[in-house]
Amino acid sequence: MTAFDVVVLGAGPAGAAAARAAAVAGARVCLIERAVLPRYKTCGGGLVGISRDLLRHAGLDLAHLVRARVDRLTMTLDGRARVTRRRRDGQPVLEMAMRPELDAALVDAAKAAGAEVRAATTVTGLRDAGRGGVAVSVRGEPEVLAGVVVGADGTSGRAGGYVGVRPDLVDVGLEGEFQVPPAVAAQWERRMLLDWGPVPGSYGWVFPKGDVLTVGVIGAREHGAALRTYYERFVARLGLADLPRLHDSGHLTRVRADDSPLRRGRVLVAGDAAGLLDPWTREGISFALRSGRLAGEAAAAAAGGDPTALDSYPDRVEAVFGPEIAAGRVLLALYSRRPELMHAMMSAGPGAFGLFTRIVDGRSTIGRQLDRPGVRATVAALSR
Ligand SMILES: Cc1cc2nc3c(=O)[nH]c(=O)nc-3n(C[C@H](O)[C@H](O)[C@H](O)COP(=O)(O)OP(=O)(O)OC[C@H]3O[C@@H](n4cnc5c(N)ncnc54)[C@H](O)[C@@H]3O)c2cc1C
To answer: Is the pLDDT of residue 271 over 80?
Structure first.
């Protein structure tokens, strides 16, 4: 059995951020990933302001990683009532990255900080090894012993089940990456699309990345068949149905119930594995980067002898994400019932778009906006 202070499961943004943070703090770290790296992940690759700040902080070269900067947003209501807004302060609404490239750069940053990376290695289970820590079972190889485990192995991994993570919202995202000719790429230059979907709580998007468009829809898993129909209609409406698809896949997202655990003994969970994700936008990269870093720091501190570090991790996560998730739930409930209202509000004028960009930039949050007395009263009235 090889032994590490911290073993991190999964080399997505949460795992790579955790491994880097723990290694920077001086821990001996092993990052275990099932896939061969770099690996594809079904994801729009849209980077909000908080994600961009954290990536820069981790030393990533965003100028190199970002495939497109978007300063225009087109919104439609199931294909109708098209409105386009443009940012005029020179800043992007979103920046777009390819997940294999982004995640590989994050893994490189973890390696540069001293983490050992074992790719193409599947974790099959976790076992409490008493005072020795946690034994991590790995397919076809000897167990790995960890002082602390950070489970960042996404929605299909092992850590969520071990810790007992309970989601109360489960969505399915369907997404394709379309190789487009130059004339189509030019139509989407600097512009993204959000379509408020016909399935309750769903929406669709087009995220441009030069000669590739990422096109997808997301909504509650219970509406799986209707979402599939929405996706195919959306793609056809955009005139993309006959273009080559580099990837065409589905992936689950889950939002944790408020009382869902974030730790079991010496195992912490972060990112999608913990159900940390905005319930309305389903933005998850910033949640993964932030919770991964908190988990990595807590794991390293515990391995270094701090007796309070593991206990305090759930409180720190609640403090950062609790209000954001609660606000996202309020908006999702309202949006699910009244998508036409969301469309009207979002396209109401420069003020509404300005508010949206402040939230996406990280200069404000949905929670802070919902706390404004006028907004609170309006939402309460509309929710009745
Ligand atoms: C369709 C769709 C579009 C999205 N678009 C966006 C977007 O534009 N912007 C945004 O911010 N968020 C978006 N999200 C959410 C975002 O993709 C996730 O929240 C984010 O990837 C979570 O990162 P993570 O590191 O927690 O998990 P992941 O990125 O899923 O990484 C988990 C890793 O664990 C590995 N793993 C799993 N099981 C094992 C095992 N047994 N052993 C070893 N390794 C294992 C996996 O191979 C994977 O590499 C989208 C989600 C979906 C479904």
So the answer is: yes
